Amino acid sequence: MQDREFQSVFDELTIQLEDELEDYPEDLDIENAGGILTIGFPNGSTIVVSRQIATHEIWIAARSGGFHLANKVEGWVCGTTSETLAELVSRVVSEQLGRDVSVLGE
Questions:
Q1: Residue 13: inside a domain
Q2: Has residue 105 been placed in a domain?
Q3: 24: Cα separation from own chain's centroid
Q4: Has residue 92 been placed in a domain?
Q5: 33-48 confidence digits (pLDDT tens)
Q6: How far is CA 91 from CA 7, 18, 46, 47, 85, in A?
Q7: In sequence order, which residues have a C-beta less than 8 Å from that of residue 17 and are 6 or more positions away?
Q8: Which of 2, 3, 60, 73 has the largest count of CB atoms under 10 Å?
Q9: Which range of residues forms the domain containing residue 25?
Q10: Which residues is 29 bridged to in the sheet?
Q11: Region 67-86: what's the mean pLDDT?
């Protein structure tokens, strides 16, 4: 994957995530700028989703830890938890919202 393609894929993913989260009844503070998606929760916690162009990875920082996802045959997969992007984002958003949610087609 070339840098430009990676950036385009990342931008599409973050726009999709942002659109889904904006429909939640909770008052989430969502900012998407410069390749970084920041999600602020009512309890004061934050999730940051960023792109790492040099390694073509998606990095997620959440209250439960930091996660690096690489593009594998089965999609974006976390190297430490083996979760897909949808599984990981659903889990960390659920943890920080305090209720079960499903995002990105999970």
A1: yes
A2: no
A3: 16
A4: yes
A5: 988 999 999 999 999 9
A6: 24, 16, 14, 12, 10
A7: 37, 49, 89, 103, 104
A8: 60
A9: 3-97
A10: 40
A11: 93
Rounded Cα distance between 64 and 104, Å, is 19
Asked if 86 and 58 count as a contact pair (C-beta separation under 8 A), the reply is no
Is the predicted pLDDT of residue 1 greater than 80, yes or no? Answer: no
Could you tell me the CATH number of the domain that includes residue 29? Answer: 3.30.920.10
Cβ-Cβ contacts under 8 Å for 13 (sequence gap 6 or more): 58, 76, 85, 104
Helix, strand, coil share (%) of the chain residues, nearest 5: 30, 35, 35
Q: Residue 19, SS3?
A: helix
For the chain, report the end-to-end CA distance as a whole number of angstroms.
24
